[in-house]
Amino acid sequence: MTERDVIGTGSRLADGEWHRLHPATPVLKGGIALVAIVGVVIVNIRDVLINTFIGGDGRGEEYDPLVWIYEHEFAGLIALVLLGGVLLFVGGFYVSWRMHRFRITDEQVEVQSGVLFRTNRRGRLDRIQGVNVSRPFLARLCGAAKLEVSVAGQNANVQLAYLGSSAADELRREILLRASGTQSAAATEGAAAPGGVIGQRVAELLGPELDPDAAPPESVVQMNLGRLIGSLLLSGFTVIIIVAIIALVVVTTTTREPFFLFGFVPALIGMGGYYVSRFTRSLRYSIASTPDGIRVGFGLLSTSNETLPPGRIHAVQVSQPLLWRPAGWWEIKINRASTSSASGAAGQANTTILPVGNAQDTMRVLELVLPGLVDPAAIEMLERGMRSKGGDDGFTNSPKRARVIRWFSWRRNGFAIVPGAVMFRTGAVWRELTVVPQARLQSLGLRQGPLLRRLGLASLTVHTVAGPVIARLGAIDRDDAVAAFSAIESAAVSFADVDTSHRWRASVPTIPAPTEAEPQTVVGPPPPPPFPGAGHP
After folding, report:
1. pLDDT band at 283 (very low <50, low <70, confident <90, very high)
2. CA angle 333, 320, 338 (to 5 degrees)
3. pLDDT (tens digit, 9 = 90+) per residue, 365-380?
């Protein structure tokens, strides 16, 4: 078994042998903390250095512990101790880097780390949910990147921090190629940027987030600057801020105590940080289709781009707040079978596939995340689910008696079953359309409480992996709910049997059109009996 240091190409890193991370990894992980500690020490001894080499009156130094150490000739000993601590600190990170290695085979990604306590993490390629390449600002300056392989399950991701920037991109391509069910392609060497290392760093900082070779430029959906600013100003968070300011002014005017104004300053700083974070992360947002799935990129200084292979999106939700409706803006969120190590705004970006977009951008993104909906009728149902106010529009909507519990939305509240997906439409003030691919469906739930039973209504839930999207539809007719339960169940079994998305390059399934005479096979426990008095579908 051989071990090799890495900055090289991704194809060589996926040869099944053990490799080490980027040589700058110790600096990027612990060097910044070391620089901060040294800076604090220098600030604290600056007065002693000035008095020693330049001279001074020495006033105010009689109780300074640093002055006492210097006057009692302990400075040399303390300097040796500090130097030993620094060497131990650097040596620890170096040993940790030497003991941290990884290898990539045709079946899995394996990482071994730890000095005293060894850790071994393995991620199977057939369970990969996405591959993310993130570049923190300092890592970008060093030409390094962090690669994270998202695997189905809780805390199951495999992280390689850090690799060479170009090696991380090529290694992602190699991992996705092997996960798709095909063999590795011949390695290709990219042309070096003019100007040497400095020219390469500048090209990486100023270049587009998505490589033009990965997707045609005309297929990329990018963020509009004015739309992004407008969406932040018209968000629900802004409404909360305005209400809080009005309440603050009323309280201050009534009590004549300015103390409340000073107490609002920290909250104001936090709100400003939220807006700045959302703005900078979405400024270079882009989404496009690549041969290995959907590529989503975002970030201004620290960037991140992730590839979601086909079949890894379990639910999609299109929503439109009331203040966005005049402008025709929409937001798209998804459910995934993995959780990223990112947190905060980064974690939100992993499930928010489109922060804000007009109707045209929204439909383009929906076509990317729902490639199975190629039927023109299904696409038309998507548009109706977003814009229609209800009525006879192809959806099975709530009956008029549902207005007792759905005052404003009973006309829009409904469902539709199209080849390959289930659609739930809800909300009149806050419009939402939830789409669940039938091959990703995990279970169904049919519920009827005392009030719904008295009104002849029921609620239907489609269960998927955990995430921000909850596919639940309430206050629909009881008989319609039972009929939908049976139809969705049969369609989910049929589509799951022919699903080959885990090997998306190996074969393309052909789904035969079902016929009414064709018997349906139900896998798993039988469905619950229909509600008393409900007709069978």
Report:
1. confident
2. 10
3. 998 888 877 778 888 9
Phi, psi at 521, each rounded to 5°: -105, 125
pTM score, whole prediction = 0.78
pLDDT in tens, 142-157: 888 999 998 877 777 8
Question: What's residue 16's pLDDT?
Answer: 85
Question: What residues contact 469, with CB distance under 8 A and at least 6 apart?
Answer: 315, 316, 317, 333, 334, 335, 434
**Contact by Cβ (8 Å): 96, 129:** no
DSSP letters, 152-171, are: SBTT--EEEEEEEHHHHHHH
Element (H, E) at 73: none
Q: Which residues contact 86 (CB under 8 A, 6 or more apart)?
A: 34, 38
Question: DSSP string of 74-136?
Answer: -HHHHHHHHHHHHHHHHHHHHHHHHH-EEEE-SSEEEEEE-SSS-EEEEEEGGGEEEEEEEE-
Specify whether the CB–CB gap between 125 and 175 falls below 8 A.
yes
The pLDDT, as a whole number, for residue 461 is 95
Question: What values do phi and psi take at 122, rounded to 5?
Answer: -130, 135
Asked if residues 353 and 365 have their Cβ atoms less than 8 Å apart, the reply is: yes
Rounded CA separation 144/150 (Å): 19
- CA distances 174 to 108, 167, 179, Å, are 12, 10, 9
Task: Report the candidate in 471, 526, 472, 520 with the shortest Cα–Cα distance to residue 494.
Answer: 520
Q: What are phi and psi of 330, to 5 degrees?
A: -140, 160
For residue 265, CA distances in Å to 239, 248, 258, 260, 271 come to: 18, 12, 12, 9, 10
Q: How far apart are CA 267 and CA 127, in angstroms?
A: 42
Distances 215 to 171, 190, 218, 288, 294 between C-alpha atoms, Å: 18, 17, 8, 7, 10
Helix 259-282 vs helix 236-255: angle between axes, to the nearest 10 degrees?
A: 170
Q: What is the CA radius of gyration of the chain?
A: 29
Judge whether 349 and 223 are in contact, CB under 8 Å. no
- Least Cα distance to 440 among 501, 520, 507, 352 occurs for 501
pLDDT digits (tens, 9 = 90+) for 242-258: 888 888 888 888 887 77
Q: How far is CA 526 from the centre of its chain?
A: 36
Compute the average pLDDT of residues 184-198. Answer: 53
How far apart, in whole angstroms, are the C-alpha atoms of residue 15 and residue 9? 11
Rounded to 10 degrees, what is the CA torsion of 137, 138, 141, 146?
-80
Under 8 Å CB-to-CB from 307, ≥6 apart: which residues? 130, 131, 132, 172, 176, 290, 292, 293, 294, 295, 296
Under 8 Å between Cβ of 178 and 2:
no
| Lowest-confidence region among 288-292, 452-456, 533-537 | 533-537
Question: Considering Cα of 391, then 394, then 395, then 400, what sign does the dihedral take?
Answer: positive
